[in-house]
Amino acid sequence: MKTATGTTLITNGLLIDGTGKAAIPNAALIIRDGRIIYAGSAADAPSLPPDIEKIDARGGTIMPGLVEAHFHATYFNIAALEDLDIKYPVEYVSLLSSVNTRLVLECGYTAARSGGCLFNVDVWLKKAIEEDLISGPRLASSGREICSAGGLMDWNPEFRKIGMEGLVFIINGQEDARKAVRALVKDGIEWVKTYPTGDAASPDINDHHTLCMTLDEMNAVVRTAHNHKLKVTGHCRATEGIKNALRAGYDCIEHGTFMDDEALELLLERDVPCVPALYFEKASIIHGPEFGLSQRVIDGHQETLDGGAESARRILRAGGRLGMGGDYGFGWNPHGDYARELTFFVKDVGLTPLEVITCATKTGAEIMGRGHEFGTLEKGKLADVLIVDGDVVADITLLEDRKKFIAVMQGGIIKAGQLAKPFPTVVKREK
User: How many structural domains are present in the chain?
Assistant: First the structure.
């Protein structure tokens, strides 16, 4: 991915650097050749020649680009889980996913970690984005997910004789687990996504169901993945499933819904981040009836929402790390609504705007393994910047409105927002 050349000065704004420090009024951000060389008070900024590029933040907010820490590029606002493996062929899924990557960037998210992807499309999305063929976030890929037979993602009955070749690897035992990871290794993914527990969305395998993967299978996944320098994460709602994942050596926990004291201690001991993905639960409760969700399933989402919010509060207050994002791409929780997660954590969970922004920038970059490159506005880091018309600390909901974005920058280049130019059409020629 190209970075800008020359020097750019951004002034007349409130600076949130993403580290958790208090916002700096009347700030300046200086970018040189795509990287930050100064972030702080305008009064202390170094002098610059008059002919540099200047951007007026209009009294708004200068902050790091957001990081969507649980991104499903190939979820296409489906009405039911089953739509994922029967609705569209890989060709159309690829086209839809490229639209979603453009959308997430337009929504102020300059980076994203895939939480599972049909046909390993995210591997190729990442390549196309990095080669500037399409617009999208800096992407960490995960490809097809891994689930034990009869688990949450194995919904096709045996009589249909249909596998899940595009969506997940269905495993039985340790050897299958190792084989699935090795297949992902060959395709170049970075994160291995698994399903240790159930979910309220399933009629048979609820969110307290732990045996979607055995501990032996989870150990096999982790050891094989770590041997190939890959990271492992998992859909973990049930208490014992969370603990099994942490004991097996998982590098991240998705959801972490029902976390007891022992689970919290294990999480903190290994400094494993958690991505709660809670707005999905609220959206399921509000809009679920329109999409035919049963009352029993909706009640399960309410229990998940309450438990997940309490676990998230406990993690952060105990010094743990939370990432923001998750599971957008359902009809009731569509792509484009990503920042509703941030509003939810402020208004419903009770975190401060600065805490949530830190989770959605610094911690998100750390989860991706790229905290040294972006995620905060600090000297030497890539200039992935979001400029918002308004005070985000005073009103976190501003991040839900793309019309408020003055500029979304990657490496100092404006990719979206009011100041953006149309994305160029690029024809790649093979050498």
Answer: 2
Q: Check if the beta carbon of residue 233 is closer than 8 Å to that of residue 264.
A: no
* CB-based contact 349:313 (threshold 8 Å): yes
Q: Are residues 61 and 73 in the same domain?
A: no
Residues spanned by the domain of 47: 7-65+377-416
Q: Which helix (H) or strand (E) holds 270?
A: helix 261-270
Quick one: pLDDT band at residue 98, thresholds 50, 70, 90? very high
Sheet strand arrangement including 191-194:
168-171, 145-148, 191-194, 231-236, 252-255, 274-275
If asked whether residues 240 and 283 sit together in one domain, one would say: yes
DSSP annotation of 61: E
- What six digits make up the tokens of 18? 């993403």
Coil vs helix vs strand at 206:
coil
Whether the pLDDT of residue 163 is over 60: the answer is no
How far, in whole angstroms, is CA 131 from its chain's centroid? 21
The alpha helices in 150-207, defined as continuous H runs, are: 174-187
Q: What is the pLDDT of residues 240-249, one digit of tens each?
A: 999 999 999 9
Both tokens assigned to 150: 């009869």
Q: Are residues 87 and 56 in the same domain?
A: no
- For residues 332 and 392, membership in a common domain is answered with no
CB atoms inside a 10 Å sphere around CB 352: 13
Same structural domain for residues 336 and 346?
yes
Q: Kindly state whether residue 429 falls inside one of the protein's structural domains.
A: no
Using CA atoms, how far apart are residues 241 and 32, in angstroms rounded to an integer? 47
Q: How many C-beta neighbours within 10 Å does residue 295 have?
A: 9
Task: Tell me how crowded residue 223 is: count the other CB atoms within 10 A of its CB.
Answer: 16
- Please give the structure tokens belonging to residue 166: 């595009």
Are 178 and 220 in contact, with CB atoms under 8 Å apart?
A: yes
Pairing mode of beta strands 191-194, 168-171: unpaired
CB 396 within 8 A of CB 385: no
Residue type at 221?
A: V
Task: Determine, yes or no, domain membership for 427.
Answer: no
Q: What is the CATH number of the domain that holds 396?
A: 2.30.40.10
Residue 246's CB is within 10 A of a number of other CB atoms, namely 22
Q: Do 125 and 48 lie in a common domain?
A: no
pLDDT tens per residue, range 255-267: 999 999 999 999 9
pTM for the whole structure: 0.94
pLDDT digits (tens, 9 = 90+) for 172-183: 999 999 999 999
